[in-house]
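Example 9 (inverse folding). The structure is encoded as follows.
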């Protein structure tokens, strides 16, 4: 673990700039910029958080980040196909430590979503169909507008990848995403592993497959994007509930306020506009707050409002606002399904790492 802390300290030293932090969790591309990110997320409640030992401002500007990505983006796993189960189990422990020290839960969730969310069910050929294949590590895909700031997630995970070369990037991204949900208080997600990595930047999907936060027809846009992935209305609403984490910032997205009474003091970098009061805790308050819309210090994007305006979406949004257990159950299933989209597994059925002994550090 001392080795992990040393790696994190090195990453923090490399990442200090004067950029403004980005703190929105995942898919809403209109709420991102090509600048930077500041990790922040919670396990239980804001009042239990201490300042990160890596400073509350931890970011990479695009030029520095791309330099780091060029250093590792072309390297496939040492296994050349699937991942080593014991190394994945050990990597999960290191990710848990990373989350405790940097509060980077939102960006890790977003990383997993964005690697998988390029999947097109109408394209059968791998890897042209997109999906969870590790392609997001390549510079060209990182420069897609929807992926702004994700270079920071890669920089944080690369020391773990170096320590465990027998795992693929595709598995590492999804492992980090699921672990972040659970560490923030969310449901246990039944994951499988063994995803193959793409090996060349030419195998990256074209830009434009990820959702926007403020399209002209929010419900129609959500369906167009998520139906292309093979997801349905229930899964769209359940996955939207992960906006219970994080904040948007108007200086980069045009959405929300510069700060609110809930964000002005942090933790992490202060400011931004959150969807929920306890914006570092994974729960069902996102649905409750959108439904009530009584607090102007809480953000509601057009795609959020659509969940209670569209008749089909509303059925699920109402249910999740009333029943957190139902939300957690449906979210866990939808997240697991998303994490497998487009993936090529070796072995073909994949494998679980629960019950697998930890690997010694490699």
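The amino acid assigned to each position is listed next.
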């Amino acid at each position: 673990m001392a080795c992990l802390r040393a790696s994190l300290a090195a990453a923090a030293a490399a990442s200090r700039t004067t950029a403004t932090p980005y703190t929105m969790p995942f898919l809403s591309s209109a709420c991102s910029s090509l600048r930077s990110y500041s990790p922040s997320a919670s396990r239980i409640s804001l009042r239990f958080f201490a300042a990160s030992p890596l400073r509350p401002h931890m970011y990479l500007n695009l030029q520095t980040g791309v330099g780091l990505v060029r250093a590792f983006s072309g390297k496939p796993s040492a296994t050349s196909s699937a991942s080593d189960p014991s190394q994945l189990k050990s990597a999960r422990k290191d990710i848990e430590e990373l989350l405790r020290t940097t509060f980077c839960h939102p960006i890790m969730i977003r990383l997993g979503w964005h690697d998988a969310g390029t999947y097109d069910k109408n394209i059968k050929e791998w890897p042209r169909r997109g999906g969870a294949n590790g392609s997001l590590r390549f510079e060209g895909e990182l420069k897609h507008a929807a992926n702004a700031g994700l270079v920071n997630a890669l920089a944080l995970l690369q020391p773990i990848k170096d320590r465990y070369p027998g795992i693929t990037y595709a598995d590492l991204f999804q492992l980090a995403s699921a672990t972040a949900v659970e560490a923030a208080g969310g449901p246990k997600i039944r994951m499988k592993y063994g995803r193959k990595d793409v090996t060349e930047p030419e195998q990256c999907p074209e830009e434009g497959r990820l959702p926007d936060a403020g399209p002209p027809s929010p419900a129609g846009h959500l369906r167009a994007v998520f139906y292309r992935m093979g997801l349905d209305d229930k899964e769209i609403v359940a996955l939207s509930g992960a906006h219970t984490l994080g904040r948007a910032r108007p200086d980069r997205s045009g959405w929300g306020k510069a700060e609110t009474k809930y964000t002005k003091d942090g933790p992490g970098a202060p400011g931004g506009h959150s969807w929920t009061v306890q914006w570092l805790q994974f729960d069902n308050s996102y649905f409750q707050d959108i439904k009530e819309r009584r607090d102007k210090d809480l953000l509601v994007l057009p795609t959020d409002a659509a969940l209670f305006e569209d008749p089909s979406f509303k059925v699920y949004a109402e249910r999740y606002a009333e029943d957190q257990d139902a939300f957690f159950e449906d979210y866990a299933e939808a997240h697991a399904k998303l994490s497998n989209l487009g993936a090529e597994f070796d072995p073909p059925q994949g494998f679980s790492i629960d019950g697998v002994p930890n690997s010694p550090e490699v």
